[in-house]
Every structure is written in structure tokens, then in C-alpha cells.
Amino acid sequence: MLNFFGNKAGLKFLAASFLLLQFCSPKGQQSLPEAPALVSKVNPMIGTGGHGHTFPGATTPHGMVQLSPDTGNEGWDWSSGYHISDSSIMGFSHTHLSGTGGGDYGDILLMPFTGVNHWEAGSKKKPEAGYRSAFSHEEEFAQPGFYSVKLQQHNIDVALTATPRTGFHQYTFNGEENPKVILDLVHGIGDNIRELELTITGDHEVSGLRRSQGWARDQYVYFVLQFSQPIRTALLNDGQNVSSEIKSLKGQNIKAIFEFEKSDDPLLAKVALSAVSVDGARRNMEAENNGWDWGAVKNQAQALWEKELQKATVKGGTEDEQSIFYTAAYHTMIHPNIYMDVDHQYRGMDQKIHTAEGFDYYTLFSLWDTFRAAHPWYSIVEPSRNVDFINTLLAKYKESGELAVWELASNETGTMIGYHAVPVIADAIIKGTKGFDYELAFEAMKNSATTRDRGIDHLMDLGFIPYDWESNSVSKLVEYAFDDWCIAESAKILGKTADYEAFSKRALNYRKLFDASTGFFRGRSASGVWVKDFDPMTITTLGSGEYTEGNAWHYTFFAPQDVNGLMELYGGPGAFAQKIDDMWEQEAVNDNEHASDVTGLIGQYAHGNEPSHHVAYLYNYAGQAQKTQKWVRHIMETQYANLPDGLSGNEDCGQMSAWYTLSAMGMYSVNPASGIYLIGSPVFNEIQLKLENGQTFTVKAENNSPENIYIQSAKLNGENYHKAFIHHADIMAGGTLEFVMGAQPSDWGNVQLPEADVEKAFGKELYSEDQLFMPYTASDQRIFTDDLKVELGSIKPEAKIYYTLDGSSPTTASSLYQLPIHLTNSAQLQAISVLGEEVSPVFKTDFNRAIYHIEGKQYPILKLTHEPDSKAYNPGKWALLDGVSASANLRDGKWSGFSDGHDLEAVIDLGTEQHIAKVSTGFLRNTSSWVFLPVKYEVFYSEDGKKWQSAGFQENAVPDDHQTIRRFQFAVEVGQTIRYLKVVATTMGDLPEWHPGFGNASWMFADEIVIEPENN
């Protein structure tokens, strides 16, 4: 795993900081007491190094405010605003993301200073040139609800704490100059300003609004800021003018500097937030933080954390292991965040103001991550709050018409794949959890599975997702299949028989992409043809292949709803277990620079990302529980550490941590909606869960040690226990699960095996291998100059093919394909395969008569000002004019990539004068893979190739989201008799601030310049 400090002794600064750093409480108060017992075991610095993306600042359990230092906002590893590699601080903002793979938030930044006024933060290389300050990690301290640091630039001691909706600052100025504080409303992490407002409302108070556009496309943060001392002078800056006379500003570039009289007392600052209004923020302040007792608020914050941490307590293990466990529990309770004011008003997905009745409304649902372990963990330790999460998701459904995919600040970001609010809700239905509307929940779940978007339309029409029609086809299909099983099980409970059968069938569709010849889930075309040049080690990202942030190894084991069926595809339990064995033995490599999330590699198991998280536990289904025990303990030992880089990948809003808390307890939610946990190998001698229902569940491990990792025997409530799994109901009923551990593998758990078999549970066969696919063309060529012969085929040679060329839908009365089709003009081909009574879906494609380069002929001649920019994305210049169009997959080898300011500028000599009707070019948009459309597409013509006239252009706005992954066609009508053409497509340049890769150059992918002559 990554290790910023080189060895585990490298974190000595953290322990030393307890002794080196003391902050005085406000004048007249006693020294702050020591932190509660469990709070003191948490190390918030875990994950602040490497690629953990956590923040060290002060927050409360699921609080609206995350008050933390910002050390940078220049790239992916600063998604939380903080990285341990930095040695200077820009300031302290009030909202932060914990462990995400993208940046946002960083709202309402305050920074204390003295001396010369600086309106910009300055650089890390020269912090004294701005309001940024150097600091030392040896003078930095973090605990749940408390953060402190010494700002060396001006000798200022900073201490931070929080209530759920307010942040509380304490600044001790140790010099002789007057204290100053800058409020920078422009500052954010990866976002842009929509509008800002600032008003001085009194001698001690200012208020305003920061409305931004980033990962959350429209985020409102209203605030009220109060100081403990009167403001001596206030300078307001709108980006052009600085004034001490103005009391209110609106605009997009607003900052303020407040100066105070020198005092022996620390300067205190309180900030209350609201997404509703300034009045809402003020009510939040009055309800939660109405005084100036900073120490009392800090103690209250830590008492809240202590109460939460007491829900799961451990005995035994090393001090580091205990710190890892309690920090993991802490990280699971940062997100989701309360997103309503104290009067229950909140801003909904429709951007209107609503009132939550009977539940608390939350935000920040990283569901692709957290459905796997975080929400099952909540269902044990925070079941009431988990019901609030579900009611929130249903409220968002009513407000927007869809369940959240990846929601942030009441904005749907559309990040990642699947419809994973479904398993969160279905898990509660399956477990019999009360407190929400089951009928509304089912309506919302079914809506997610029938919305014709994100490949779901192909799934509904074809039963699978073709790689040539949809990016990440394999990952989407296997995850949709699991979500569909969740819907089926919910339908069964609700007595919806037809839905139960329909979605049970869909739950088995994952099998359609299993290629027995390779032993992997593999991309398949709409015509049933397997993707060429298959390599199970090739890692692809969103939009760049068949897999989402992974490869075939990572996704081949994802059928948690039907593990027994998956085993049969491999030939039985033994062969299946051998396939998992093979995974650990592969080379631990990541071949894709954009797949930065694929980390924590053990062979081709990737613990730093979610798709692999369940795999070690699958041995239990195959009757080899001892291998689960071996590998789970190995993962906990090697992928977690009590260090800043103690996480092998992004923390991902609690998922990485929930994997640990469950696994340390000796169990994991392989199917997170089944109510069953697979047993692994407990780390501690004892874990005790204090449940909301008043019961206590205890896991004990006798003879436990780093060597004694294998279960020899087990008892549940005094009775011998042989199952390699345990039911949720057994946990919630309370009692004791006792293990006896040993150094050698045993046969425990290999007799009574868990089952996940969709067809067996349903009681009849649901899946048929037999499927009639649509026809295909023998060649990918779609563009021709004079004529073209089109050959059709089917993967079932005995099928008959019927076709049309006039755009009409084919039937058995249409033309029967017998010989290659001869085209002399542009046409749309539609075709079907027919075998007996079975008719395939319709194959549809366009053929264009155009002018293109034919190898071996002199014209047209193509000259490029800039060659494509890399070997990986440079198929040769003739790929732009070869008559074969690229797909929506950026890795199909046909796209020409341009970056680093190198625009596409192509000059085409047609050889003779010809009347040209139209020129068009295909481009790809896949912002997650850094691929953007051109900001301008223009076509020029010339008689001599020297003097050019513009035929027309198209401009394209830069997007503000990650959503669209598809091919676009830009076209310009020419209508001239000409010999020379020039096509110019201008790249966007550097990635925008909202993008996780901000600071790097964007890419533009182009393919196939189509030149259409007159009378086509």
C-alpha cells in the first residue's frame, strides 16, 4: 500500500502533538478536559495522505458543517481540500467531502492574519505573498469534533470545533498587531461562482450567500458569521474596488477583511449555514450555538462522537488496530449530512423549499460506493437514521422524478453507474424495517429500472447491454442485474407477482455476458459478437471500455444475488474457487493512467476501489471458508494502517471504512440487501454492539492473534454454530457469537453453506441461453465513394435475414438477404434475423456516399497541422478519412486524440473541383476520461489551397457535469464547387475547475471527416 512517510514510525508527529500543542480556553474558563475515551482513539489523519481524500477538521456525526483546513484545491488528491504532503494552509472552510473521487464544497473560507492585507491566498512555494500561512504537522492536532494548528506566518493558534449546523473558530493572536480575518467567498474546491452576496448586519455580524457550480451544479450556501469582538474596520472587495464605506455587495468576486482591536482574549468566530436562507442560518445559530463558550461546544461535539462510537466497542488487538477500527467507525458517520434547518426546512432536488415532516432530510449519497457495506452497517448501528436516509431518498424521488444515483447538495451529479438507491431501500424492506412508505418505495425502485437511459433501454429491449451501443456495458449489466434482484425480492414481499417474475429474470441477465471460452464477463455487440482483442487485465474507466474503473477480473465475480448460478458457469464450486485463487496470483498492475481509483492491488484484487470488496468472502459459497479467513485478514493487515496514507484508496464516504468495521467484526454483506452476512475472521478478542432496540450483540474470538486467523469452531448463544454466515435478525436479537481461533485451516463453515440461487428461490427455470441476435455487417465500413457491397450475417447461420433500405421497419415480407447488397447512394439499412417463429431486434445503420481516402489512390490527400498526440490515440492520419466511424468507446482504436493545445486542423485536397454539399466530423464526449467536445468546429474552402473562406462554424459550450458519454456529429453546409477543404476543431484547453483533473490538459477525440457531394 502507499506509505507517504516510508514506514509506520512516520506518524510520530501525531502522538507528539498531544504533548507539544496546548491551546488556552477563552479567558475565565478552565483548561479544556481530556477527550472522552473512545474519541481519543480516533485518528482523523488516516486517509489524509496517499489517495484517501479525507479531511482532518471538526464535524459532528452526519453534521451539515465540516470545518477543516484547506491546503490546496489544484487536483484529484485535494478532493477534500487537504493533503498531508502540504506545509501551508489557505484557510478554514465549512464544507468538505470525505474520501470522494472528485472535489467540491470548500464553502465560506475564513483565515486569520495580521499586518499587510492580502486578497489572494498566494502559492505554496511562497505563502507569505498571500494570506496563506506555513504550518508544521508537529503543531497540528485532530480529534473528532476538534482540530487545532499553529499558523507560523503570524504566530496565531487556531482551534476549531462544530455543532451540526455551525462552525466555531478560536483564534489566539500571539503578536502585538491588531487581529484581522479575511472572508473569501470566491474560494471553493473545484467549483465556479454563480452568485455571491455579503451584507454587514451589525458590529459583530455579517451574512450572505455563496451559490456555486461544480460537481453539484447549483449549490446554495447561506451563512451568518458572528464575531465575539466588535469589528473595528471592514474592507469589502468586489474584485475591482475596495471600500470601507460599503455595507453590502452582490456579484461573483466578493471578499472582505475584518480588523479588530488587540485583546488578551482569543477572537472567536461562529458561522451558521443553511441551504434555505439567511434567516434559516440565523435560526440554526440561535438553536445550536447561541453563546460564546467555545470549550463547552467542543466538549458537546466530542460527547456526540463518544455516544456514537460507543455503539461498537472493541477489546484486544493492538493500539493501532483499535485506532484503525474507531477511525473507520468515525469515517462512516461523516456522510450523509443533515441538509435541513432546525425548523425542518430544506432545499429539495427541484430547488424549491420544502419541510421535512416526520423524518430528517440528508444529502450526499455516494451510492455506488456505500450500498455495499456502509448502509448495511447503518442498518445495524444506526437503523433509525438509515430510515431517515431512505425517507430522504424517497423525498428526492418525489421532487425530481427519479431516485438518486450520486446526489450532492440536492443536485443529481449522475456520477458512476447502477441505480443503487434500490438495494438500500430493498434491504430495509427485506429486513422488515418500518418507518417509510413501501408502496412509494417500490414505485421509485421500479421507475429507476425502467427509465430508458444509461443503457437501461438496451437492457429492456435486448436483455443485455451491447458494448457497441453503450460504454461500460459489462459493469452496467452486472450491477443492474443485482439491483433488479433487489426489486424482485421487494415485489415478492409486497405480493406483486408479475414484477417478482419479471425482475427475477432480469437478475439473471448478467449471464449473457459470460464468455465460457475465457472465463470472464466480456463485452458483446448487439449482434452477439464478442469484443475483439480481449484482455482481462485491461482497465477502463467511465466511457472508455466495457468496465467502470476496473477490468474483467474486478467484475467477473459480481453476481451477489446468484453466486450459486455464477459458480455453475465455471463448472462448480471447485473451479469457481480456483478462479478466485487465480485472481490473487495475477500481476498487480494498473495499465490505465486515468484509472487512478484502481489501487490497493493484491494480484488483480483491487481493495482501493469498490467492485472487488466482496470477492474474498465468496469462498464461503464454494465450501472453502478457510480461504476467506486467510484473505480477509491479509487485506485488513495490508490495506489499512494507522497512518495518513493508511487507506489503500479513496475512503468513499464511509464504504472503505465500513468494509473494515464489518470485517473486523468477522462478517461482511456480500449481498447487501439479503439480510445475510458472510463470516470471515474477526480481528479483536471482543466486539460489542449496543443496539438501538436495547439489545447487545457480542462477537468473541478465543485464542485470537495475528497468527491464529482460522476459525476452529463457533457457538451462537451457547449452541454449536456451523454456518459460514449469519442472519441480520440474529444480530438484532442480541446474544453472543463465539469463535475459537487457530493457526491452521479447519473445515469449520464448509458444511452448511450460504446460498444465492435466483432460480432455486423462484422455484422454476427463468433463464434461457438461447437468444436470436440481430444481424451484423461483415465490414465496419459505412462510407463509400462510388458503390459498396454490404455483406450481412448472423451468429446463427441457419437464421434468415430480411432487410429494407428505405428507412422502414423490416418484416418477413421484406427483401430476403441472399447476396451482398449493392449500394450506389446513401441509404439506411434495417435488418432482422428470423429463425422459426423467433424474430430478432432490428439492426439499423446508415451508409453515406461521400469522398474519402482509399488506400493506394492519390486523392483525396489529407494533411494535418498537428499529428494526434499519443501512440494510444494515434491510429494514423488516414483514420480521419478512411470510411470507418469510431464508436462511443474511446479505446476502440479508431479515435484520433488531440491535447495540449494541439487543435485538429486538416487540409484536404480533393484532386479536382467538386460540388460539396456538406462536411461533418464525429467527436466524442466523455468528460470523466478528460475527453471534451471542441469549443468550435469550422469548415473552410479554397480554390487554390492558399486563400480560404469560411463555409460556416458551430460553437459548443463547455459542460458543467460528467453525464454525457456519446458520439456527436458536427456538420457545416458548404454548397460550393471547390477543390480544397480545411476542417478546424478547437480544443477546450485545460480541464475546468469543477473537474477532478483540474490543472491538466483536456483531450479532444475526432474521427471520420465525412465529405458529402451534391446529389447524394
Task: Outline the fold blueprint.
Blueprint: H1 12-20, E1 58-59, E2 66-70, E3 88-89, E4 91-93, E5 109-113, E6 133-134, E7 140-143, E8 146-151, E9 156-162, E10 166-173, E11 180-184, E12 192-200, E13 205-213, E14 219-227, E15 233-237, E16 242-243, E17 248-251, E18 255-259, E19 267-274, H2 278-288, H3 294-309, E20 312-315, H4 319-332, E21 337-338, E22 345-347, E23 353-355, E24 362-363, H5 367-370, H6 374-381, H7 383-400, E25 407-408, E26 411-412, H8 421-430, H9 438-450, H10 456-462, H11 473-493, H12 497-506, E27 514-515, E28 520-521, H13 552-555, H14 563-569, H15 573-585, E29 601-602, E30 605-606, H16 625-639, H17 655-664, E31 667-668, E32 676-679, E33 686-690, E34 696-702, E35 710-716, E36 719-720, E37 725-727, H18 728-732, E38 735-742, H19 758-762, E39 776-777, E40 783-784, E41 788-790, E42 792-793, E43 800-804, E44 815-816, E45 821-823, E46 827-835, E47 838-839, E48 843-849, E49 861-864, E50 896-899, E51 904-926, E52 936-942, E53 949-955, E54 965-986, E55 1003-1013
Parallel strand pairs: 34-38, 40-48
Antiparallel strand pairs: 1-2, 2-4, 3-6, 5-11, 7-8, 8-9, 9-10, 10-19, 11-18, 12-13, 12-17, 13-14, 14-19, 15-16, 15-18, 20-33, 21-24, 22-23, 25-26, 27-28, 29-30, 31-32, 32-37, 33-34, 35-36, 35-38, 39-42, 41-45, 43-44, 43-46, 46-47, 46-48, 49-51, 50-55, 51-54, 51-55, 52-53, 52-54
Helix pairs in contact: 4-17, 6-7, 8-9, 8-11, 9-11, 11-12, 14-15
InterPro entries: 6-hairpin_glycosidase_sf, FA58C, Galactose-bd-like_sf, GH-type_carb-bd, GH29D-like_dom, GH92_a_mannosidase_put, GH92_N, Glyco_hydro_92
Domain Glycosyl hydrolase family 92 N-terminal: 42-274
Domain Glycosyl hydrolase family: 280-742
